Amino acid sequence: MILVAGSANLDFVVRAHHIPAPGETVLGRDFQTFPGGKGANQAVASARAGGAVTHMLLGLGQDAFATPLENSLQSAGVHMHIVRTPGHPTGTAFICVSDDAENAITVAPGANAELRPDHLPSLAGFTHLLLQLETPLDTVTAYARAARAQGVKVVLNAAPARALPPELLAHIDVLVVNEGELAVVSGHEGSIADCLSRVAVRTVVVTLGHRGSCARHNGAFALQSAFPISPVDTTGAGDTFCGSLVAALSQGQPLVDALRFASATSAIACTRWGAQSSIPETTEVEALLASTPPTSTEEAQALRTFCGLN
């Protein structure tokens, strides 16, 4: 059983030819709103794609923006522990998606910033606590410390990128970052392997976009090539990866199998619009896994070279 403690945002998404540069105005086309927020996206991925019993601690305002977020989590089977914050609106995110499926995101945290250490529910029965950095850092640290003290595995998706205090890293079992976040957390801009060697966490997973992912566990490396897709919208792909990865780990899958499952789940999500709306069902992930051969020797070698492991 998994507890996700983190953010929930209503995403305002506009499609445009390209993401505007500073001072530039771009005429967009399609506009839609989607349930989002790193925490909520990961909870939906854990429950819907990963098939894990999933709870979520989240902060919401007393406004209309909260309703679609609650409906999305409920429809995915996520059990909610909601902290209402009068005077603070539900979190929002403003997202521009370009025609090549890249995105630029600005987040207004709202109620997400009001989660406090004493809001953490009982951890009895939970195997994993999944955290991100869209809620206050002192709260994230307090949750990690409490979980570690009770024997609950702590997984941190260190996004948005920021330097992490040693006190927080000391309570993390699995750290999930993308390439840019790894550089920030490690304080180094060398190869993936060099950066990983500087992070004092037993298991670190790095997502590498269209290349795949790389993990270091107890000094050994595992590599997973990306599944071949034609992306439509990459919003929430990293969150989908995180949620489904933790779901797989909570069900006893070895890290290498969990990486493949998470990669397949996020690949499907990239072929659809939105964050939570793009997350597939477990049966869809299983079908993609069954129809796609494992990472070939050539793919693995290319990924090793990119990561600086040769």
UniProtKB/TrEMBL annotation:
Chain positions recorded as K(+) binding sites: 233, 235, 269, 272, 274, 278
Cofactor note: Requires a divalent cation, most likely magnesium in vivo, as an electrophilic catalyst to aid phosphoryl group transfer. It is the chelate of the metal and the nucleotide that is the actual substrate.
Known EC number: 2.7.1.15
Main location: cytoplasm
Start and end residues of each Carbohydrate kinase PfkB domain: 2-281
UniProt cofactor(s): Mg(2+)
Enzyme class: transferase
Pathway it works in: Carbohydrate metabolism; D-ribose degradation; D-ribose 5-phosphate from beta-D-ribopyranose: step 2/2
Location(s) in or outside the cell: Cytoplasm
Reaction catalysis annotation: D-ribose + ATP = D-ribose 5-phosphate + ADP + H(+)
Domain of life according to the entry: Bacteria
Keywords: ATP-binding, Carbohydrate metabolism, Cytoplasm, Kinase, Magnesium, Metal-binding, Nucleotide-binding, Potassium, Transferase
Keyword Zinc-finger: no
Active site positions: 239
UniProt cross-references to Pfam families, sorted A to Z: PfkB
Positions annotated to bind substrate: 9-11, 37-41, 134, 239
Regulation: Activated by a monovalent cation that binds near, but not in, the active site. The most likely occupant of the site in vivo is potassium. Ion binding induces a conformational change that may alter substrate affinity.
Quaternary organization: Homodimer.
Family: Belongs to the carbohydrate kinase PfkB family. Ribokinase subfamily.
Full protein name: Ribokinase
